[in-house]
Structures are given as structure tokens and as C-alpha cells.
Amino acid sequence: MKMSKEIVDARRKKIMEKIQIQGKVNVEELAKELNVAPLTIRRDLQYWEDMGAVIRYYGGARLIQSFVDNDQIKDNNEPYKHAIAKYAANLVEEGDTIFINTSSTALLMLRYIHDKHVTVITNNGKALFIDHDPKITVVLTGGEIRYPKESMVGDFALNNVNRVSADKSFLGCSGIDAEIGMTTAILPEVSINEAMISRCTGKKILLADATKVANIHQFSVAKADVFDLLITDFRVQKEQLEDFKYTSLAIQTVHPFYGYQSIDQQR
């Protein structure tokens, strides 16, 4: 009897959730857990390999381009951050110079920009540890290192950002609210974010998973209208998105398991 598409999709989603959390999976273990034949699991893993999400090896598969930090792999938001970063990376064009701030989601973009000559200017010290395409040039702003985020802040970082301009900016945030706008929980990062906005000559793009939408933190950075696009994930409530209809901000939602077909845009 042919299995329904809904059952197959649900099983594949469950497998991907497990891979996102663990970083890798074993065919035999999955077969026992899901009560299916190992051949079925191999077909499911082949599906995800064809989608570019995993690399198969004998007896299992591993996630492509995940953080090696185990604490981050276990982060429940990690699949959504990856989906947002992947979509954002598709907006980067050959020859672009872009700003990326200290956001972990924005930093993930470095893993998904492929075969393009791009200059990335960032105050995120963790950029040193991210594998990326050799065509990407990463320029650190320098400045005072602030732990645990390893962000670069202070007058030195700010002066360097103000000396350059970028074609696009990709900024993460602590919160984004329709009325208050972009906010952060870290005061020293406000001036750097403001500079990355003002020194951007093209599109200003905000990256925020659903946990940050309609959320307000202590320090205000910019109104929502300053940005051209908000990229978030499908978990955002419809009522939360409705609040943005009075702004000029376009909204794109993405899904970590079904690509970018799950889209909700508004102006």
C-alpha cells in the first residue's frame, strides 16, 4: 500500500529535526525509532541530501554547515536561524560589500554565500571561526572585545565603520516591534548598529527569528520603517505581523524544512 504524502513529509520533518539537534544521525537507530525499514530511512536521507541539507555517509548522515558548538546545535531556534540566514544569503549579489553585526543569525550567512566575490564588514569576532567560501573577504572592525558575544564595540570600531559604506546591511536584533522598532539589550552595540544603517547605501535587512518579533528590549536602535525587509520564520503569529501593516517594512517568513515556499510578504 502506497504511503500518503502527509505521512512521508511528517517522517522526513522528524528526521530533519533530529539532525538539526544532534548534527548527525544513524540509519539503523532511526529505523528502529520510527518503526520503518532502513531502506526507507536511506531514501529519506537521500531526499534531504538532494535538498542540499545533509551529506550521507555509510550508515548515516550529517548536517551540512552547522555550527560545531554543541550548545548552539542544541538551541531550539537553530533550524530557524539557519533558514533565515539561507534566505538572506540569497539576497547577496556578486561584488557586494555588506555589513553584518553581532547577531548569530546574521553571522550564519557566511556559510551560505557561495561562488560570489563579497566583502563582509563585521564587528562580530566569531567571524574568525566560521568556514566560508574563499571568494568572501571578511573585514573585522576591530575595537574593544565584549564577551561572551565577542562583539567589537567602542570608538575604534565605530570610527572604522564610519569610514566605509556598504551595498546592503544584514542586522540581527534582540527585538523588533512595529511601534518601537529595532531594539537591543546591549548598549555599546547601539552606536555600531546605527552606523551600519546610516553607512548603508542600499537595502537594510533585519533578521529576527519568531522569538524576537513583537519583543522590546532596553535600548532602541531604529524605527521599523528604516528597514526594507524583515526576514523571520513561520512561527510568528498572524496578529504580530498585522501590527506591521502600518509600516513600510516588507516581511518574509521562511520554513526550516520546506525552504522558502512558506512566504508571507506585506508592505
Question: Would you mind describing this structure in some detail?
Answer:
This protein is of the alpha/beta class. Helix content is 31%, strand content 23%. The protein has 9 helices and 15 strands. The strands form 4 sheets. The protein has a 7-stranded parallel sheet with strand order 6-5-4-9-12-14-15. The chain has a 3-stranded antiparallel sheet with strand order 1-3-2. Strands 10-11-13 form a 3-stranded antiparallel sheet, with helices on one face. Helix 6 (104-107) links the parallel strand 4 and strand 5. Helix 1 (5-22) packs across helix 3 (38-50) and helix 2 crosses helix 3 (38-50). Mean pLDDT is 88; it is low at 66-75 and 261-267.
SSE order and pairing:
Blueprint: H1 5-22, E1 24-26, H2 27-34, H3 38-50, E2 54-57, E3 60-63, H4 70-73, H5 78-89, E4 97-100, H6 104-107, E5 118-122, E6 136-140, E7 144-146, E8 151-153, H7 155-161, E9 168-172, E10 175-177, E11 181-184, H8 188-198, E12 204-207, E13 219-222, E14 229-233, H9 238-242, E15 250-254
Parallel strand pairs: 4-5, 4-9, 5-6, 9-12, 12-14, 14-15
Antiparallel strand pairs: 1-3, 2-3, 7-8, 10-11, 11-13
Helix pairs in contact: 1-3, 2-3
Q: Between the first and last Cα atoms, what is the distance in angstroms?
A: 47 Å
Largest sheet: 7 strands, parallel
- Average of the residue pLDDT scores: 88
Question: What structural class results from the helix and strand content?
Answer: alpha/beta
**Number of H/I helices:** 9
Number of strands: 15
Shape summary:
globular
Strand content: 15-25%
Radius of gyration over all CA atoms, rounded: 20 Å
In terms of quaternary structure, what is this? single chain
Please give the share of residues in helix: 25-40%
Order of helices and strands: HEHHEEHHEHEEEEHEEEHEEEHE
Read across the widest sheet, the strand sequence of neighbours is 6-5-4-9-12-14-15
Residue ranges: pLDDT <50 for 5 or more in a row? 66-75, 261-267
